[in-house]
Amino acid sequence: MVLNFKEPEGQIARWIQRLQEYDFEIQHRKGTSHGNADALSRRPCTESCKHCTNAEKKFGMEIDISVKVLTTISVDPWSSCEIQKARLEDPNIKPILEKKLYSADRPSWQEIAPESPATKRYWALWDSLHLKDGVLYRRWESDNGSSCGWQLIFPKSRIPEVLRETHDSASGGHFGVMKTLSKTRERFYWDRLRANVKRWCRECHACGARKGPKTRTKGRLQRYNVGAPFERMALDILEPFPVTTKGNRYVLVLMDYFTK
């Protein structure tokens, strides 16, 4: 039972704090009576199962009910035309893409100097950028050169769609920054990719509600020397509680360091 934990932490502690707001009674119910809750987790028995036959006779079950699909995942396809249109509308990618379409030679610095810092960073990657069927890709190699792959250069306007798939979706799994970054880099690339992934994971509401803050290092215990009552006091506020008839909701806890 969640209320029996001696030193609850993280999500368990938040559950206990939330449950303290309510006045409830816990009643035990046998596992055999939980058919409405765990029926979907039971493996279907064979037709010759005596237990299921007896249960059907006891409860008058005559209709065979089966659930094959619990949930479905729908992903909107991205066509090359849509990506190409969004890429041409991106002011950071458009200059590089146009120059790649007309010439394979790297443009001079004088041509790129008026462009944005992001465009200049794409220009620095010129040798690793390639066009495949009119779509701009980046050829990526691992640090040791053992593996390589093609990353789709993605426009800024479509970045949230990628991060929703690689982090928020059922296949994304709400993993941390490094796993989400690795999964995103397998197929996509854009300027400031790492910063965007880090910010997306940090601002994810579902991750913040479930994972909780990291444990901070506590300082060493210290002894405070006091020589008389009420010379040094410690206080804390305990909340939240149900509002009383007088409108009170909080409890102020005071402790005297001398008398304790």
UniProtKB/TrEMBL annotation:
Its EC number is 2.7.7.49. This is RNA-directed DNA polymerase. Pfam families: Integrase_H2C2 (PF17921). Residues 155-211 form the Integrase zinc-binding domain. It comes from the Eukaryota. PANTHER family: PROTEIN CBG26694, PROTEIN NYNRIN-LIKE. InterPro entries: Integrase_H2C2, Retrovirus_Pol_polyprotein, RNaseH_sf. GO terms for molecular function: nucleic acid binding; RNA-directed DNA polymerase activity. It comes from Araneus ventricosus. It is an enzyme of class 2 (transferase).
